[in-house]
């Protein structure tokens, strides 16, 4: 039986290549694999060629109308991860390309990272750690999260797991989502509120929505201005959801007390970035979901999505 042709055009830094799922994939498919990033749409198209199936690891080059137009043989684009901001889903549908992703596999890892950023920011751990290591003995009060209110914006798999963890450390949880229902509120022991009320009431605001044209710039000067001056903002979703310039201004002005960020408007974070110079920020390099457990599960699901599609039972399809 002929193996299906499959392209992996962008595994850099390499996560799929060294993994156990990739070892089995090579036996099941004729794989064209690249462990460098394509430097242009033309390079992306060249690497994929006439392969009908693609596993996309990074989001360095957009899959837009022009890319899909040049890939007439492409049938399935299997994304590792949940983000689809680099894919024109309408163009994919117009060209008959099914797009899948890997929802839920990193929910625990991302929720744990969200908690880590909350605690690190609330307790000012990076600054205190640095001063202590240099021989200091820094004094001052830090924030306690027990008894405080967490506002979750977006209640998908990661948002729900974050709610469970927050309740576990004694936080009150309020949330906003487009799909609010009483059963979810009861299951997670939280209260659904309008978005503006969430900003006003929360001691910590945590972002967990997908990046779409509607959510890009969702948190800007106005929303930050609604927050308490003692509040913290945590973003582990996508950088452009938060207006970074407005956030820097709010931190410098003391409009809010601090921020913990795993994602940025530009990645990697450029040298001298204003957000890196802002006070009261804890930064990590878009690494919240990269645990060994989540990594292996997500890569395996991205592979499974290909073969489920081949077998006529497409799973985890992303709609425009």
Pick out its properties:
320 residues, alpha/beta, Rossmann fold, 2 domains, 7-stranded parallel β-sheet, 5-stranded parallel β-sheet, 13 helices
Give a short summary of the structure.
This protein has helices at residues 20-28, 41-48, 65-69, 89-94, 107-122, 125-133, 157-168, 182-188, 195-201, 221-226, 244-253, 274-277, 292-310, and strands spanning 5-8, 30-33, 53-56, 76-79, 98-100, 149-153, 172-176, 191-192, 204-207, 232-235, 258-261, 281-283. The protein is of the alpha/beta class.
* Main structural class: alpha/beta
Portion of residues in beta strands equals 5-15%
Ends distance = 34 Å
| Largest β sheet strand count, sense and barrel closure | 7 strands, parallel
- Regarding CATH, which class of the largest domain? Alpha Beta
Low-confidence runs of at least 5 consecutive residues: none
* Mean of all residue-level pLDDT scores: 96
**SS summary, helix count:** 13
Please explain how this structure is put together:
The chain is of the alpha/beta class and 320 residues long. It folds into two domains: 5-105 and 291-310, NAD(P)-binding Rossmann-like Domain (Rossmann fold, 3-Layer(aba) Sandwich); 107-283, NAD(P)-binding Rossmann-like Domain (Rossmann fold, 3-Layer(aba) Sandwich), CATH 3.40.50. It is built from 13 helices and twelve strands. Helix 1 (20-28) runs parallel beside helix 13 (292-310) and helix 5 (107-122) crosses helix 7 (157-168). The longest helix has 19 residues, at 292-310. The protein is globular. The two termini are 34 Å apart. The mean pLDDT is 96.
């Amino acid at each position: 039986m002929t193996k299906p042709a499959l392209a992996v055009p962008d595994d850099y830094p390499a996560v799929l290549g060294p993994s156990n799922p990739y070892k089995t994939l090579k036996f099941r498919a004729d794989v064209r694999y690249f462990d460098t990033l394509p430097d242009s749409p033309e390079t992306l198209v060249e690497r994929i060629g006439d392969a009908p199936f693609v596993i996309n690891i990074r989001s360095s080059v957009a899959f837009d109308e022009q890319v899909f137009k040049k890939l007439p043989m492409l049938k399935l684009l299997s994304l590792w991860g949940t983000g689809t901001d680099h894919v024109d889903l309408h163009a994919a549908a117009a060209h008959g390309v099914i797009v899948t992703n890997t929802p839920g596999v990193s929910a625990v890892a991302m929720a744990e990272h969200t908690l880590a950023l909350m605690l690190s920011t609330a307790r000012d751990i990076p600054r205190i750690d640095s001063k202590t290591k240099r021989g200091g003995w820094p004094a001052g009060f830090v924030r306690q999260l027990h008894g405080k209110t967490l506002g979750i914006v977006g209640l998908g798999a990661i948002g729900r797991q974050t709610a469970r963890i927050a309740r576990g450390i004694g936080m009150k949880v309020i949330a906003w989502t487009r799909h609010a229902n009483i059963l979810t509120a009861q299951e997670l022991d939280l209260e659904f509120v309008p978005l503006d009320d969430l900003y006003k009431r929360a001691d910590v605001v945590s972002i967990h929505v997908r990046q779409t044209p509607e959510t890009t710039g969702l948190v800007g000067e106005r929303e930050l201005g609604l927050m308490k001056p003692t509040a913290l903002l945590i973003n582990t979703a996508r950088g452009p959801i938060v207006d970074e310039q407005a956030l820097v201004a709010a931190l410098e002005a003391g409009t809010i007390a601090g921020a913990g960020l795993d994602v940025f408007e530009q990645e990697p974070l450029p040298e001298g970035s204003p957000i890196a110079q802002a006070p009261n920020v804890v930064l990590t390099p878009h690494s919240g979901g990269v645990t060994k457990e989540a990594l292996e599960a997500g890569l395996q699901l991205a592979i499974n999505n290909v073969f489920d599609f081949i077998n006529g039972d497409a799973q985890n399809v992303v709609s425009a």
